[in-house]
Amino acid sequence: MTSPEAKKQIHELIDKINYHSDLYYQKNKTEISDFEFDQLLEKLSQLEKEFPELKLPDSPTQRVGGTITKDFPSVVHQYPMLSLANTYSPEELKDFDTRVAKGLDGEPYEYFCELKFDGVSISLKYENGILIKGITRGDGVRGDDVIANVKTIRSLPLKIKSKNVPAQFEVRGEVFLSKEAFKKLNKEQEDIGEETYANARNTASGTLKMQDSTEVAKRKLDCYLYYLLGEENNTQTHEESIKKIELWGFQVSQTYKKCKNIDEVLKYIDSWEKKRNELPLETDGVVVKINNLRQQEQLGFTAKSPRWAIAYKYKAESISTRLNGITYQVGRTGAVTPVAELEPVFLAGTTVKRASLHNANEIARLDLRIGDFVFVEKGGEIIPKVTSVDLSRRDEKLKPAQYITHCPECGTKLIRHEEEANHYCPNEKGCRPQIIGRIVHFIQRKAMDIDSLGERTIAQLYDLGLVKTPADLYDLKKEDIMRLEGFKELSTKNLLQGIEASKSVPFEAVLFAIGIRFVGKTVAEKLARYFKSIENLSAAHAEQLLEAPEVGEKIAQSVFVFFQDKGNQREMARLKKAGLQFESSFKEPEKLSHVLQGKSFVISGTFQNYERDQLKDIIVAHGGKVLSSVSGKLDYLVAGDNMGPAKREKAEKLNVKIISEQAFEALLK
Ligand code: IVH
């Protein structure tokens, strides 16, 4: 393909991608599937790799990440990022209103109310319509520029399409993980046997600071904007600013309202107290702003916050009840989760009997004693939490709760790995909830998809001694299933059919189903496509595993150890014999060329035109192979800036060709 041809294709693809993005994010509609959308992005990304000089600064491929940032540059805010004064009571809000009236010398004024989104504040700078900086609040004076991560937020315009936008402006808003994205992320954590995250805001904050923007992109951060700043805005009111940024393509939550006076503000606050729970993200209050910008200026700021705005915080619904005991749940990976058993109490529409306590650290932090009265709170999350102990009601005779030392299910002594908060039961093969949990994981929709089988049935099958491992499912006979409670002819037939149908589930899903720690759905897909069969995968040593995309030390080690285990080997052989798919039917996308066929590369250092992952993709797309370490068999070491001296020395000693980024590009020609 010639450069002009590529340029034309790139433009067409960008138009198409932007059209579908707009449709999805601005109008809530779709015309193509996620898969088709990803394919458009993939095609664009390939072309940009081949013709790096044609990559546009606002290319939608930036949404998928690909940047590693070691240290985020610290940037001084052009306008300091202040916080808001908080209030919890209507009286204080009325006092605020009185102060405002006084400050405005009796002039009429209006309020503009918005919900207070519970996320991480961000300041976005645009120059000539292009997003150039995304700065965290930091200490209010200077924050970190996390632009690569910000660009993964799909609802944010990388380039403003409207004409007449100021040459420079700044918008501020809140980056958040929606309740749905947070739930999905935690499900993925469970899938790979990792600890789940406790709350969406902290997770959003941590995500924004991740070094690898590809990881960030997967987590699907989102953003609402609520503040326009800049010298040449020509707006008279906050309302106009909000309408303007909406017009420019920014996502603004449609929950705002202009209010004539403080009574209308109080009504707004009331009207959202319950309704806010139905919103897609967590909110913790209402922000009340003076609408007129000149009046905002007149009221000015204190050292910490504006006098023209205040945050009214909803009281989290909280109630005190007796802690009757602590029970412990054991999960699929053996991780132990303590649960507070509470005297049933009515809270925010439901009766609460139990609350999660997360881990031993949390119990120690709360200094819990069985018999204490504890405060229980229900945030937006479904699971209530214990927030503190009501010390005024503590009976001094109570002793601090002791964490269990042995598994409540099988009696095995618990272990706790260094730097991990959870205790584990190491009795993988003999502990009931771990065994049942593994089978539940195996049959789930994303895995073997046997929907005629549920957790209760699995527990029965286990208790009757019929199923101890996933492979046992494939030996089940009609008469076995008929023994189960509630199973008749038809349900038995359904179950057997479901098990039979799972034999055609693709290798990718089977690999996820077998539950290797740290191998989630995406990693399973990459491994299956890279190694193509279980034979290749199980024979791979850690070095080879590291060469697969998405695989780091932790995953490589876990996969290697899994296949070394004799019991796992027997289980795989049985599953294979039962007829499960152990070979990938995935067809490699066509190569861009074969110029690097048979050549192997190691990439080291940082590059001017490429991210490292991009370079890897280019090599593979042109038929080459990427290795992780230098050996005598290696053809090329592609050396970037700051390459480790050890690699260079080794390559020199072994007579491996060391080439620059430019020399690498020449190989492609
Ligand atoms: S306006 C000068 N509007 O709350 C302050 N802030 O406690 C301008 N927040 O740092 C902020 N929702 O991170 C504003 N609708 C909203 C908001 C909001 C959430 C956060 C923001 C700010 C903090 C202040």
What does this protein structure show overall?
- The protein has 25 helices and 21 strands.
- The strands form five sheets. Strands 12, 13, 14, 15, 16 and 17 form a six-stranded antiparallel β-sheet that branches. It has a five-stranded mixed β-sheet with strand order 2-11-10-3-9. The protein has a four-stranded antiparallel β-sheet with strand order 5-4-7-8.
- Helix 23 links the parallel strand 18 and strand 19.
- Helix 1 (3-27) packs antiparallel against helix 2 (34-50).
- 32% of the residues are buried.
- Residues 82-84, 114, 116-117, 121, 174, 226-227, 287, 306, 311 line the site of 2-(butylsulfanyl)adenosine (IVH).
> What is the CA-CA span between the terminal residues?
12 Å
Number of domains: 6
Approximately what portion of the residues adopt beta-strand conformation? Answer: 15-25%
Instruction: Enumerate the spans where pLDDT stays under 50 for 5 or more consecutive residues.
Output: none
CATH level 4 superfamily of the largest domain: DNA ligase/mRNA capping enzyme
- Radius of gyration (Å): 29 Å
Largest sheet: 6 strands, antiparallel
- The CATH architecture term of the largest domain is 2-Layer Sandwich
* CATH top-level class of the largest domain: Alpha Beta
